[in-house]
Every structure is written in C-alpha cells, then in structure tokens.
C-alpha cells in the first residue's frame, strides 16, 4: 500500500483533513494530549540507497527495504498504538511537528526478539496496555505476523502488509473515536488473538 492509499484510508478515521508538511502527512491534532500531538503520522518514502546503508541481513529485510520503505518511511497510527518503523537520518528533512519515524533498528539491531529467526525482520509494533508486540515480516513468504515479545509465538497473521494495514485500521477505527481517543477506556487495543500476551509475564 502506498502512502497516498494509506492517507486516503486514514481520512475516514478523523475529523480534520490531512495536513501536508515537510517529510510527510499529519492527521488530526490532539491539543489535549500535547501541543504537537497528532492521531496519525505518515512519513514520506526514503531513497532506496539510504535504506540499504543499514547493516541488516536476511531476505525479509531486503524485501522490506525494496518494497514498503519505498512506498512510505513508516507511520504512527492511532496515537502510536500501531507503528511501522522507518529509517531515521539527519539528512531527512522533516517539519518539527512531524518528527522522524520510530527507528527501524528497534527490534532488529536493538532489542531484537530473542527467538526470532535470522531471515525475518521486525517492521513495526502494536502497543497494548502493558506489552509491546512486534510485527515480524517472514523471510520465507514475506507475510507479516504479530508475535509475542520473544518472537516465538505467532498471534495474528496477514497475507500481506497491505492486508494488515487495511484490517488493522478498520479494527482500530471501532476502538478509537475521530479525535483519536479510546471510545471505552477499558477497551484493549491489541487484536483479540493477542490479548493473552498483553497480560502475560
């Protein structure tokens, strides 16, 4: 899914029109949270040569760099409940309100799930009430899955990154209102299949 398609999908989840800024797109201010808080942040694609400078190996990383990062350089949706990571660099010019994406090195070079196989890579996270679960791209069939924090147990699997984005935006739209707040403060944000890991030690 390209950046334009994702922004179009997200427009239906908020009240305000998208705000185009240097480096990406912001959707729906949240002044009650912080002066520069927004419900959604989507980052412009980065040059492929920049993504390939990172010291990653494995077939999943190559697919990720050649595919998703060429479409957009990550996103932070629903106030950070759903994150796709991106390349952070001082040469990427972004507006202060947008900032930079969550660094793709998290989960790959730093805090890598200890049981994740070599050919796979972490491309994002979903954040629950007590745990952050990694979204891992398979090095075999390039499908994304949500895993427990160790990277051993799969909780949800999607056929493609596009399918994951569409289904999770639709699911989270039923949990968050148009201002980006939980409709019910007790409502879990993780998929039902993953709730066991939100409370597990």
Structure described in brief:
The protein is α+β, with helices and mostly antiparallel strands.
3D structure, described in words:
- This protein is α+β, with helices and mostly antiparallel strands and 201 residues long.
- The chain has helices at 3-11, 48-51, 59-66, 68-71, 161-173, 195-199, and strands at 19-21, 24-29, 38-43, 75-77, 82-84, 121-127, 132-137, 144-147, 154-157.
- The protein has one domain (3-199).
- Helices cover 21% and strands 21% of the residues.
- A hairpin with a 4-residue loop joins strand 6 (121-127) and strand 7.
- The protein is globular and about 40 Å long.
- The model has no long low-confidence stretch (mean pLDDT 86).
Task: Tell me the number of helical segments per DSSP (H or I, 4 or more residues long).
Answer: 6
Which segments are poorly predicted (pLDDT under 50) over 5 or more consecutive residues? Answer: none
Shape: globular
Order of helices and strands: HEEEHHHEEEEEEHH
According to DSSP, the number of beta strands is 9
The tally of domains stands at: 1
Q: Roughly how much helix do the residues carry, as a percent range?
A: 10-25%
Largest sheet: 9 strands, antiparallel
- Radius of gyration, taken over Cα atoms and rounded to an integer in Å: 16 Å
Look at the structure and give the mean pLDDT: 86
Strand order of the largest sheet: 1-2-3-4-5-6-7-8-9
Distance between the termini: 35 Å
- The helix/strand class is alpha+beta
| Beta fraction | 15-25%
């Amino acid at each position: 899914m390209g950046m334009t398609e994702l922004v179009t999908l997200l427009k239906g989840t908020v009240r305000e029109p998208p705000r185009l800024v240097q480096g990406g797109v912001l959707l729906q201010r949240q002044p009650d949270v912080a002066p520069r808080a927004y419900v959604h942040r989507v980052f412009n694609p980065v040059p492929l040569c920049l993504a390939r400078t990172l010291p990653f190996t494995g077939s999943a990383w190559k697919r990720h760099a050649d595919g998703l990062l060429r479409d957009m350089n990550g996103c932070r949706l629903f106030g950070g409940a759903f994150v796709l990571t991106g390349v952070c660099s001082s040469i990427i010019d972004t507006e202060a309100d947008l900032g930079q994406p969550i660094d793709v090195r998290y989960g790959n070079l730093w805090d890598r799930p200890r049981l994740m196989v070599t050919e796979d890579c972490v491309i994002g996270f979903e954040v629950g009430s007590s745990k952050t679960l990694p979204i891992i791209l398979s090095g075999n069939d390039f499908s994304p899955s949500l895993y427990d924090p160790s990277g051993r147990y799969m909780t949800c699997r999607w056929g493609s990154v596009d399918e994951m984005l569409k289904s999770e935006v639709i699911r989270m739209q039923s949990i968050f209102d148009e201002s980006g707040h939980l409709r019910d403060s007790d409502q879990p944000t993780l998929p039902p299949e993953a709730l066991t890991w939100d409370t597990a030690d």
